[in-house]
Records
---
Amino acid sequence: MATSVCATGFKGGLCTSSFHGSWRTSTAGEDYAALARSVRTNVRVGKPVRLMPMMRNVNEGKGLFAPIVVITRQIIGKKTFNQLRGKAIALHSQVITEFCKSIGADAKQRQGLIRLAKKNGEKLGFLA
């Protein structure tokens, strides 16, 4: 079946068409099989570009003590402030450790208390 039909319905030479045959032969025939073989089944995709996550406090600028912390950091400088904050956190962790020793809590419970103290510090604004 090699009939060429154009949109106006005339057979022959008024229109040129590349369609020869029926719909069934064009989708299920040899052309479809050759097309299916030529399509790659595995497509290689490059790695997505990921931005480095910012280590920031979710509650930054919020909390009861956040304004005091921000003003203190501006007055004494960021480096000195971070050193002071580190010493305060270390001292607080020692207090928690001594408390856990006195009540007989194990290391897992102690670690949980330290994490809880950090979360509370974030909520109150100490880590702003």
---
Amino acid sequence: MDRVVRWLEKEEIPHDAAVLDIGTGNGVFLVELAKCGFTNLTGIDYSAVSVELAKNILKKEGLSQVKVQEEDFLSPSPSLRGFAVCIDKGTFDAISLNPDGAVRARERYVQALRSVLSPGGLFLITSCNWTREQLLNMFGQGEGTPGMFRQGIPQTSTKPDPLQGCLGEMLSNDLLF
């Protein structure tokens, strides 16, 4: 989350740019963006409970102007359009690993992204389940993709806590399209 915020600031993304947080969950990322001066923020989540939690957190932080709505990203409403920046911090991973219809779900995700992202807009995705090359194949190359790959935010690698039953390294890929 911090790397994405730092990158947005480094690239001088206008603070009034329309930003969509795909799969906002509790809305904490929206809080961080608002604290950094971003003013045109929308978060969506398919979970009504998550949306209510996010609204409560935003209200407690004095950020009730931030929009949060219940929305299935695979079937976006016609009003969900025109975003200069779309950010995904794990929703694509969750959708694409569903054992029932994963390939079709990934295709629908790309179609939905195409419909909500403004021409020339930016798509930032964080993935722990897909390699950089796989993400490039799904999002950044070929006709009809949401945009051409522009760059990667430097990859991070962390050593998991062996007490939590994890072995090896965990990688996070942050890519910008």
---
Amino acid sequence: MADLVEQSKRSAAFAAVDKHVSPSVRVLGIGSGSTVVYAVDRLLELKNNNQLNPKLVCVPTSFQSKQLIIDAGLQAVDLDDLPILDDTQGGFASIDVTIDGADEVDSELNAIKGGGGAHLREKLVANASNKLVLIADYRKDSQVLGEKWSKGIPVEVSPLAWRTISRQLEHMPCMQKGSRLFESEHPAAHLRQAVRKAGPVVTDNGNFILDVCVGNIYDPPAVERLFKMIPGVIEVGIFSNMAAEAWFGNNDGSIVCRIPQSEIKKRE
């Protein structure tokens, strides 16, 4: 079973890289997580075959992805350093494409991210990109967020007031203007605890993470906005209306590429 999952991740990552990373790509965003490892493996193969832009620069979304980029012999550049890379062309207005993993993706390609605690930087890089492409295995493919991912919405918060923010999140109404936003009438917020370290997880940005369990999420954009209104919330691990494509590797070896369901209906 584990081998099938890893193979499905590899297949999705390789397919996405082969489609979206051509020699014309000058700036590439590199996401975080276990599936992204395979994307960088493919980039290394392309580099060794001289199939990448020789001036390619990669923008990491976490400590992990920066190390992957460096270990592959690629150039890592922080997001805010992009405008001063090439004075002859006035700098870069955006990243050509970002390839990133996801914890769950719904039918509209809204995603839950942040299982690895990197969703703040992931969202900053995604927002600065012309295109966001998600890669994952078949276990992350859902119709509704929360259907398969049961660990809650990752919410990066200021350590100064994490208890207060936690209480406020737990009192969030599941209904708004007569519409149900999420399933649970009693959200539960849990401070994420570290492994092999006493105390909470501390993000690359020095913050804490609350995992907020709300059940199925029926209106991801509204929930994202609602959570972000709380002072002290740094970023919410819901990526709504950001991804252009999602690639899923299946357990039978096949690959599925999806676009938002609403886009499919427009084309019919």
